[in-house]
Amino acid sequence: MKAKPAIHRYSMVFAATLFGCGVGTVSAAEEDFMSLVKRLQQEKPEFAKRHQALLAERYDLADRPASGVTMSAGKPVQEGVRIRLPKGTTWEQLAAMSPEEVKTRNLWPVGFFPLPHPHHEAGGMVFPQPLIDETKLQTGRDLTRFDLDFDFPKHLVPEFPAPIYLTTRLDLGDVSRGKLVTLDNYYGLFKEALNPKQLEGLRLLVSPFPQQQFNATDDRRSLRPSQGVACFDCHANGHTNAATHTVGDIRPNEHRHRIDTPSLRGVNVQRLFGSQRALKTVEDFTEFEQRAAYFDGDIAAAAKKGVNVLDRGSQVHAMAEFQALLDFPPAPKLNVAGKLNPAKATKVELRGQDLFFGKAQCASCHTPPFYTDNLMHNLRTERFFKERMINGRKASVDGPIKTFPLRGIKDSPPYLHDDRLLTLDDTVEFFNLVLELKLNDDEKKDLVAFLRVL
Question: pTM for the full model?
Fold first, then answer.
């Protein structure tokens, strides 16, 4: 009998192990740990090659910073449309077509399809290398996975470490002082700025607890038994480092979204949390994140691997109180109503603002001063393409997605809920097609200029 290719064998094994698919093959749990490591390390290059080929097909990944535009701590913002178009097609031609015509002619840009996880069949938390290196340097904790690596190059993700701004102490500027906040340094950095309850909340946010891939069991994905993952490993410095995962509340696995790590800046003005936004307070999110997202929504795995059950009356409230202090970065060109001060803004930015509140229809969902309506909206992108499989991810429907705040948006690439849009220019092109706006090139540039100053 001909052996199955490794790429398919592992997909079946992982599905059978985590998702109860009933595939008649050996499960990962029946392998001894070193055999599991050896097998997955052997398969790793094949999956990495597959994913990198997909990224190269979809995007221009070059390091091309915008002149004079930086994130809050000085990292250059990337410019330009990076989505690759179908051969022989222009953005203007696409914008002139109906959704039905784009679908019939199979012209939906490949970069606008849902983006798979770096290894979608395996899923789980994956961290960028700078976070792995700094965490190991400070704490000795290793967040390296032996089976897969993070996928995007450093110039396309948020600055690291990101600055921290507190709503209660705006006079301090970046309270982190340019450092990654960990269990090793949080007290020295914050003891003069926080009360004891808030300090305890921060301590818990930087404390590692068992997680699906990082724990002490023999089906983990770290070489050594791990203490686990801290909230601020993904939400580094209360922001985001673009660490990725797959949502825990969708089955089967091929329908699970790759999930972008959203910034925690401004959670005090938000009202919807969790991948399907079923959680209505940051307290709810904090309490259930370690029971659900940490373990891919698998309560049996959580019990086995050591789920950390937080106490609502003390720990959860302390963590939530600190998170509610995380402010958006300064936006010196905005007035108190969240709109441009004409004396400080350029003509291009002012034109972009007019488009934002007019022809581009952005403000119908992103209302000032924080540029969110705290609602869910279904863009119905499936109008534009036929269902297909992409590296283990079924591109079918996105469903309702949250209106994320746009304040400080230039600090948070990549964009959309699954990281499929690399730049703000890509984001404008995406919504120009989805909302059928018919913006011209100059209008797109003006809109990007406005988004950069929010």
Answer: 0.92
